[in-house]
Design brief:
Blueprint: H1 11-17, H2 20-34, H3 95-110, H4 123-128, H5 131-138, H6 144-152, H7 156-166, H8 174-185, H9 190-202, H10 210-218, H11 226-238, H12 246-258, H13 262-274, H14 282-294, H15 298-310, H16 318-330, H17 334-345, H18 354-366, H19 370-382, H20 391-403, H21 407-419, H22 428-440, H23 444-456, H24 465-477, H25 481-493, H26 501-512, H27 517-529, H28 537-550, H29 553-568
Helix pairs in contact: 2-21, 2-23, 3-12, 3-14, 5-7, 6-7, 7-8, 8-9, 9-10, 10-11, 11-12, 12-13, 13-14, 13-15, 15-16, 15-17, 16-17, 17-18, 18-19, 19-20, 20-21, 21-22, 21-23, 22-23, 23-24, 24-25, 25-26, 26-27, 27-28, 27-29, 28-29
């Protein structure tokens, strides 16, 4: 994977670069935003014994709703457009095809990189290297005047290098950068067109436009430019600007990898290791990982290190992962700096060292990396990672991350501003455009927050439950657990869709099995009440206990209330 600034990584690459803790905290903001716009009880009418009275908490409530006694509702026909346990369509890649691509990739990688241009960069450099490493290798800082003269004379390589060099907080000149990207992108220089595509993907200097981003890359697919192939593959993976198409994604990655692209190789390693778009195959994942490492590409080393460090299973190798991440960080790769910072935060290098992690993130942020800015902003927002809670600093860093193209930051900042959060005043007029742009870029956090605005009719938006359902469904289908939970609530309420107790219960189960605590509580309530299916007080108790053991203070209170209610039905809490 390449660095997010300023190239076009796949949405999966962006997710891998953000630590899991941030994603969990970002999801929590949905509930925090909802706390100022409480919605009705999820289970207004439930089936079951007349004596049942159990809480069914939802993220919108500070406490828990009460499961009321009622007659058996008539279940609506399930909405066939809503699939349970959503999975991207998996494709099958034959062993012969995979082996042939590996062999071709190995041969292509071994070929000579070709002559260097006046900037000291080869065609391979322009295809493989991230922007920050290109700027370092070309030594732009020491020859800015020369680069500017060439850029003014119309050299697209110089225009792109200058745009990359200017894109830092200390040198930022957005009108000039935008003009440089557009001038270079109007030529037939492929890296410039992919660079321009990144500006549409990230909203760097202009509006987010996934279709424009995809079309710029897709226009290069008949060439041998592998960065365009990995760019288009990412769009097909997430359905951004192009149809979600797992087969097309794999075709493009295999083609790029066979042409020697380390970025495609590490994407394939992740794909086989995760098993979402292709059947999990750890042998193939290991083979592509080894070849990606053998490329010597430093950003790929950082991504490979991340896989080795944080992917549990047979590929995990902390020692090798740290070595790769360190090598990339020491060379100035922002991807490497971020992964090394996360390693320090997680105690993979001795005891957790939040101060050292912050130094590395600040170094990456100073080079214009939006992900690093986002992580610092989140630290100030939640008072974590060695930072004191500081709302003003949090907003400043999040705004900076948005400016430098982090769509994840748009989603987080939009959620914060939608209802306000811990010293940051609500600013709906600012929040809604941020959330809409983040949704356009496929950010599931933003889908939930914007869905809340439509569901509740806040921030000047006319209430539109159907639009809320569409956003929650999109998040659910992207396998975002919070989306599954909110969609279940809408099915239970009959809001924006037909009431469907069976679907609600099944969706709560799906989210609960992915460790969503509020879904555990709602599922336990449904099981105890016989809502959407038969009564099962023993399983209800099991889920309530699990919620109690894994929840926050609010959830633990709700779980204890639910456990007491289930005990009244004759199922005792066996914990000590």
């Amino acid at each position: 994977m390449t660095a997010i600034h300023p190239s076009l990584p796949s949405p999966a690459a962006v997710r891998k670069r953000a630590p899991a803790r941030l994603l969990v905290r970002a999801a929590a903001l949905c509930g925090l935003a909802l706390s100022v716009v409480p919605q009705g009880a999820v289970l207004a009418q439930v089936a079951g014994r007349a004596t049942v009275s159990a809480p069914a908490p939802v993220a919108a409530q500070a406490g828990a709703a009460t499961v009321a006694a009622a007659g058996t509702p008539t279940a609506a026909a399930p909405d066939s457009a809503i699939s349970l346990r959503p999975r991207r369509d998996r494709v099958t890649v034959s062993e012969e095809r995979d082996r042939a691509a590996l062999e071709a990739g190995r041969a292509a990688m071994a070929a000579a990189p070709g002559p260097a241009d006046v900037w000291g960069l080869t065609d391979r450099d322009w295809d493989w290297m991230s922007a920050d490493l290109l700027v370092r290798k070309a030594d732009v800082g020491a020859r800015v005047a020369e680069v500017e003269r060439a850029a003014d004379a119309g050299d697209p390589k110089a225009q792109l290098l200058l745009a990359y060099w200017l894109a830092t907080p200390d040198r930022l000149d957005m009108p000039r950068i935008k003009a440089l990207y557009e001038a270079a992108g109007a030529t037939d220089f492929p890296r410039a067109r992919v660079g321009l595509s990144w500006t549409y993907f990230s909203g760097f200097g202009q509006a987010v436009d996934m279709q424009a981003a995809y079309e710029l890359c897709a226009g290069l697919l008949e060439t041998r430019y592998t960065r365009a192939m990995t760019c288009a593959a990412g769009s097909h993976e997430a359905g951004l600007g192009a149809p979600r198409d797992a087969a097309r994604m794999m075709d493009l990655l295999l083609r790029a990898a066979s042409l020697g692209s380390p970025s495609a190789m590490i994407d394939l390693a992740w794909a086989y290791a995760e098993g979402k778009v292709v059947e999990r195959n750890m042998d193939r994942a290991g083979a592509w990982l080894d070849l990606a490492i053998a490329s010597g590409d430093l950003d790929t080393h950082a991504e490979a290190g991340s896989l080795l460090l944080f992917r549990p299973g047979p590929l995990q190798d902390v020692e090798q992962g740290l070595a790769l991440v360190r090598q990339a960080a020491e060379a100035g790769s922002s991807t490497g700096l971020i992964q090394l910072a996360i390693s320090y935060q997680n105690g993979l290098i001795g005891d957790p060292d939040e101060a050292r992690a912050l130094e590395l993130l600040e170094q990456a942020a100073a080079e214009g990396d939006g992900v690093a800015m986002l992580l610092i902003g989140a630290g100030y927002l939640f008072g974590e990672d060695g930072l004191e809670e500081d709302p003003e600093a949090a907003r400043t860093w999040l705004e900076q991350a948005v400016l430098f193209g982090s769509n994840r930051a748009r989603g987080v900042l939009g959620a914060v501003l939608l209802g306000g959060f811990d010293g940051i005043e609500a600013d709906p007029r600012r929040a809604i455009p941020l959330l809409r742009a983040a949704v356009e870029a496929g950010d599931e956090q933003a889908m939930i927050s914007l869905g809340v605005a439509y569901e509740q009719g806040i921030a000047g938006i006319r209430p539109d439950p159907e639009q809320a359902v569409a956003l929650y469904r999109r998040a659910h289908e992207a396998e975002w657990t919070t989306g599954t939970f909110f969609l279940a609530n809408m099915a239970a309420d009959g809001s924006g869709m037909n009431e469907d107790p069976g679907l609600a219960r099944a969706l709560w189960r799906e989210a609960a099995e992915k460790d969503h605590v509020d879904a555990m509580l709602s599922l336990a309530s449904a099981l105890a009440a016989g809502y959407g299916g038969p009564v099962d007080t023993q399983e209800a108790m099991d889920w309530a206990q699990r919620a109690r053991d894994n929840g926050d203070a609010r959830q633990r209170v709700a779980a204890r209330r639910l456990i007491r209610a289930i005990e009244e039905l004759g199922v005792r809490d066996g914990s000590t």
